[in-house]
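Obj: model holo form, ligand = zinc ion.
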Amino acid sequence: MVSEPVRVRPNPNQVDQDYAYTYSALSVFWPESEFHALIARWPQLADHLGTTWDEHRRRVERHCAICERSGLRVEQLPADVPGFEVTLADRGVTCPEKDDLMAHPDLRSVTTRTLAWPPARTAPCWCGSGRKYKQCCRRHGLGDLD
Ligand SMILES: [Zn+2]
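Output (holo structure tokens):
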């Protein structure tokens, strides 16, 4: 069950004179070390992100696959705890919940480069494991993407 709402935004590189924006689905993920730091500090967020790193990246992969299947371009954005702290401070929150995760990052101020998903089959996996995508998270997608 994937419960994460899809966040979409106009693709900044594809705005034409007819205002025919294309939209990208943005999938925020937590790299392994950031995931562990996040959950250690705010265990309640595991309900929304997954209780383990493997569960988190499995959820992210499925989310991306579902978005792509619905016709959206998919971009990924890695999140980090210091950046999340800024979001929480802006929101006046000390005990974050799902809404705070969804508000992060503030898409108006994102400067981190997004990554196009999916990677090539033989390219390094997006999750940072160092393995090829086809041998790593790809198999956790919808299962019938070949
Ligand atoms: Zn992976």
